[in-house]
Specification:
The chain is of the alpha+beta class. The chain has 9 helices and 8 strands. The protein has 2 domains: about 140 residues, Tetratricopeptide repeat domain (Serine Threonine Protein Phosphatase 5, Tetratricopeptide repeat, Alpha Horseshoe), CATH 1.25.40; about 140 residues, L,D-transpeptidase catalytic domain-like, CATH 2.40.440.10. The protein has an 8-stranded mixed sheet.
Length: about 325
């Protein structure tokens, strides 16, 4: 007898494969899967030319398209037209209700379908398999509840961690505020200024320890040492604070003793002027509102730039004559 089962063999095989691969929770034993495929794709007594047969084909097509609600609707009409096929149709409906790729799957309705087969038709060939499916689904429901409880606990832990992170952040801000207040009370000058070009960092050092660091902007062509006037490079080497200009166009400039002997010699060998006027300074007058945003680009002609507020701190603690080391 030619089969016109609602789910074709190929479709149902793919269904079971996707079920086993996509579902995180519902894992049918191999024997149950093989049995379900055999029964569902077995010989059907629905003639393909009959109205019920057409409904079977339509339901099969809707399932293949992933339109599970419409597929279930065809099943219900099929039960009305051929009540004698009710146990087979109910079994297939139970499969669809529990199908992992069905976004609107409903385990309770799936259980109702299998329960109707078990209670309504003791001689149904689908009775045993309905019992097996009910057992599988009930196991899934238990696992889902366990997973939901664990997820709730995980979410609670995450909220606790977030709260602790916020508390840590608040404490760090308080520590930073206190450190800044202590720093502002400091009157002892520092021993050295360290500038690290690659890290875009200026560090004030006292007694061999870093006491404050600042993010800096450099010359527009910062890689490599300064060689000549106008190359927009920041020097590299050992210098000193040579002088200061409290009325600079770039807030509170501290002049660095560039060029040193090595710089002069290199420029002479190249037949160029080494340039000069290398400063540690703030932002150009009238543009102090830029604040820390100025460090987003290297914008100076070779100088080292900080914010105006930072420059006031540096100028207060950095005396003339102390070493300035500028590293690549």
């Amino acid at each position: 007898m030619r089969s016109s089962a609602i789910l074709s063999t190929r479709t149902m095989t793919d269904t079971v494969k996707r079920w086993d691969g996509a579902s995180r929770y519902l894992r049918l034993p191999l024997l149950c899967i093989m049995l379900a495929v055999f029964l569902i794709t077995g010989c059907s007594h629905t003639g393909e030319g009959s109205p019920a047969g057409l409904l079977s084909l339509e339901a099969n097509e809707l399932f293949a398209q992933g339109n599970y609600d419409a597929c279930l609707g065809k099943y219900e009409k099929l039960i009305e037209k051929e009540p004698e096929t009710g146990d087979r149709v109910l079994f297939e409906m139970g499969i669809i209700y529990a199908y992992p790729e069905n976004d609107r799957k409903n385990y309770q309705k799936a259980l109702e379908c299998f329960r109707k087969i078990i209670k309504g038709d003791p001689d149904s060939q689908y009775r045993r398999d309905s019992q097996m499916m009910m057992l599988q689904i009930q196991n899934v429901i238990i696992k889902d509840k366990l997973i939901a409880a664990q997820q709730t606990q995980i979410d609670a832990y995450r909220r606790g961690i977030k709260t602790q992170e916020n508390e840590i952040t608040a404490l760090q801000q308080k520590i930073g505020t206190l450190e800044q207040k202590v720093f502002e009370l400091r009157t002892e000058p520092v021993d050295m200024v360290l500038i690290e070009k690659k890290k875009r960092r200026l560090t004030l050092i006292s007694n061999g320890e870093a006491i404050k660091t600042y993010k800096i902007a450099l010359g527009g062509d910062p890689v490599g040492p300064k060689e000549r006037q106008g190359d927009k490079k920041t020097p590299e080497g050992t210098y000193t604070i040579a002088s200061r200009n409290r009325h600079s166009d770039y807030h509170l400039s501290l002049r660095i003793s560039y060029p040193n002997e090595k710089d002069v010699k290199r420029a002479k060998e190249l037949g160029v002027s080494p340039g000069g006027d290398i400063m540690i300074h703030g932002i150009k007058n009238g543009f102090s509102w830029l604040g820390g945003f100025h460090t987003e680009i290297d914008w100076t002609k070779g100088c080292i730039a900080v914010t105006n507020k930072e420059m006031e701190e540096i100028a207060r603690l950095v005396p003339n004559g102390i070493p300035v080391e500028i590293r690549p």
